[in-house]
């Protein structure tokens, strides 16, 4: 015999359908209304024609595109290198901060000072200090290219953030996990590598990726040191034409660059939430 | 001939609180010793001292005649010879059942991955869990998780197995399957120390029973002596409380 829903259930489902139709309708009309108001507000503004010409000029955009895109390739190289070193340095600092042995106290102290310092210093300041200060020392074997020093500044600042995220992950692993591993005879470092860190990284993947997204766009700040990245390339174009459209082109490219990683972060977060709900705990 | 595992005059306190007071117990090879006592009597602390998760304040612990509590002992090596199972399973959630079991053999005992894998699957098969080998722990029932935890502890061929209230977090049906596994290990000659509230099981499996009270060994003997003719008032009170709670 096939299952026949009771009339009560049928009524319930019909009511649910009505409610969802109604909310879709409301969402649609409110979006339209807000959009209409915005268009009215912007196009009605006195300076609209001028802004449109100097920020949204298609012919300038086309002209700027090749050089801005070449600049973006530099950003891409910088952030790939920076992400690698940020994760590495962040991991080392996090491990240093979670050690307990008295011998390692100086290491803990240094790691703590490091994170305090570089989380507090504005990135722009670090960029200027590293990018202008280090070449000023005139040490022959230190490269004074703006790209290298800019990357170093990014790594210095972002490692401090990432270290704190990873540390939170390490401390979030239940101490009984560590105990169980030690009771099986695993050494301190084996426990860290095989039991604690895999769980720690899993716990903090979303905030970690969030920091990496932020690093991606901040890679544009190396332009203040003179590196010809996407923003600098746009600036050069603007200086020639007195039209700001190239900046918008650079901005659009940065957004396109970060979208894949942000979507990936969202997807990962959702998947983890779903998993936690399925188990009731994790 | 001294016993396989000996606890001699150990003391342990947390601050002002004296938890273990001059406790001495011998654990002969292939014997099952059951430790009973009310909550707070020091059972868990004793277990944690025995696998060196807690530092002693006095006394010593001998394994195979060697003092493993001596200062400078390689704790990791010693722990590799002592299997421990906890009340809360503590399986590693990021590893499959098989990887949970092979982790210590591979890392601590240098067993090759394929050999460790084969051994783990044999153990799982013997205890009816082979079809769970590649699952992750969160998909297993509590009883299955605890059985995997016990298999993980014996996969390193420990000289002695410590079981600390391993059934306390389980319902009666699941308790039965875990106790069956423990009884089979006993048949195979595993030396074990069991802290438990399952008195029926204690009577069946124990070669000797130790009653801890306020951090001291208050009474000890065969199951018949302890459950049949308790000598001290404290043990009588404990047993009658269990009886009233329907646990005896």
Explain what this protein looks like in three dimensions.
The complex is a heterodimer of chains A (about 280) and B (about 250). Chain A is mainly α and about 280 residues long. In chain A, about 80% of the residues lie in helices and about 0% in strands. Chain A is built from ten helices and no strands. Chain A is flat, with a radius of gyration of 26 Å. The mean pLDDT of chain A is about 90. Chain B is globular. Chain B is α/β, with parallel strands linked by helices and about 250 residues long. In chain B, α3 crosses α4 (about 115-125). The mean pLDDT of chain B is about 90. Chain B has helices at about 45-50, 75-80, 95-110, 115-125, 140-155, 170-185, 200-205, 225-230, 235-245, and strands at about 5-15, 15-25, 30-35, 60-65, 65, 80-85, 160-165, 190-195, 210-215, 215-220. Classes of the chains: A mainly alpha (about 280), B alpha/beta (about 250). The interface of A and B includes residues 182, 190 and 279 of A.
Outline of chain B, from the CA principal axes? globular
- Low-pLDDT residue intervals, each spanning 5 or more residues of chain B: none
For the termini of chain B, the CA-CA separation is 36 Å
Our count of domains of chain B comes out at 1
- State the fourth-level CATH superfamily of the domain at 76-227 in chain A: MetI-like
- Rg on CA atoms of chain A, Å: 26 Å
Q: What do the pLDDT scores of chain A average to?
A: 89
For the biggest sheet of chain A, the summary is: none
How many E strands of chain B?
10
H and E string of chain A: HHHHHHHHHH
Task: Give the assembly state of these chains.
Answer: heterodimer
């Amino acid at each position: 015999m096939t299952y026949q829903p009771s009339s009560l259930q049928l009524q319930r489902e019909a009511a649910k359908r009505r409610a969802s139709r109604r909310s879709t309708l409301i969402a649609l009309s409110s979006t339209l209304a807000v959009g209409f108001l915005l268009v009215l507000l912007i196009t009605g503004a006195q300076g609209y024609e001028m802004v449109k010409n100097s920020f949204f000029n298609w012919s300038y955009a086309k002209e700027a595109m090749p050089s801005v895109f070449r600049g973006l390739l530099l950003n891409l190289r910088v952030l790939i290198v920076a992400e690698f070193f940020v994760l590495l340095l962040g991991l080392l600092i996090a491990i240093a901060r979670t050690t307990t042995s008295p011998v390692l106290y100086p290491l803990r102290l240094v790691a703590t000072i490091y994170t305090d310092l570089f989380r507090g210093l504005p990135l722009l300041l670090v960029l200027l200090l590293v990018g202008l200060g280090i070449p000023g020392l005139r040490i022959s074997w230190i490269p004074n290219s703006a790209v290298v020093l800019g990357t170093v500044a990014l790594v210095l600042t972002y490692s401090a953030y990432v270290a704190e995220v990873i540390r939170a992950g390490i401390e979030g692993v239940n101490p009984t996990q560590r105990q169980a591993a030690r009771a099986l005879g695993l050494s301190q470092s084996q426990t860290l590598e095989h039991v604690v860190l895999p769980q720690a990284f899993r716990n903090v993947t979303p905030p970690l990726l969030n920091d990496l997204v932020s690093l991606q766009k901040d890679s544009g700040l190396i332009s203040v040191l003179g590196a010809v990245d996407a923003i600098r390339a746009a600036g050069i174009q603007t200086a020639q034409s007195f039209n700001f459209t190239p900046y918008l082109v650079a901005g659009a490219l940065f957004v396109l660059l970060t979208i894949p990683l942000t979507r990936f972060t969202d997807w990962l977060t959702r998947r983890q939430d779903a998993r936690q709900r399925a188990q009731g705990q994790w | 001939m001294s016993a396989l595992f000996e606890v001699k005059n150990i003391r342990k306190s947390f601050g002002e609180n004296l938890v273990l007071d001059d406790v001495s117990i011998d654990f002969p090879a292939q014997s099952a010793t059951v430790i009973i006592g009310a909550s707070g009597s020091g059972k868990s602390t004793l277990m944690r001292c025995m696998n060196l998760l807690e530092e002693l304040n006095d006394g010593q612990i001998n394994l195979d005649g060697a003092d493993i509590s001596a200062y400078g002992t390689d704790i990791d090596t010693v722990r590799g010879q002592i299997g421990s199972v906890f009340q809360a399973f503590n399986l590693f959630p990021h590893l499959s059942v098989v990887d949970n079991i092979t982790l210590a053999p591979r890392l601590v005992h240098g067993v090759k991955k394929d050999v460790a894998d084969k051994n783990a699957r044999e153990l799982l098969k013997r205890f009816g869990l082979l079809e769970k080998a590649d699952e992750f722990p969160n998909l297993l029932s509590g009883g299955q998780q605890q059985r995997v935890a016990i298999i993980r502890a014996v996969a390193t061929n420990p000289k002695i197995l410590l079981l600390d209230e391993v059934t306390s977090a389980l319902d009666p049906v699941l308790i039965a399957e875990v106790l069956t596994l423990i009884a089979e290990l006993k048949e195979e000659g595993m030396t074990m120390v069991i802290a438990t509230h399952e008195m029926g099981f204690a009577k069946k499996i124990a070669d000797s029973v130790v009653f801890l009270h306020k951090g001291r060994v208050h009474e000890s003997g065969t199951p018949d002596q302890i459950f049949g003719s308790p000598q001290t008032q404290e043990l009588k009170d404990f047993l009658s409380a269990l009886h009233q709670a329907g646990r005896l």
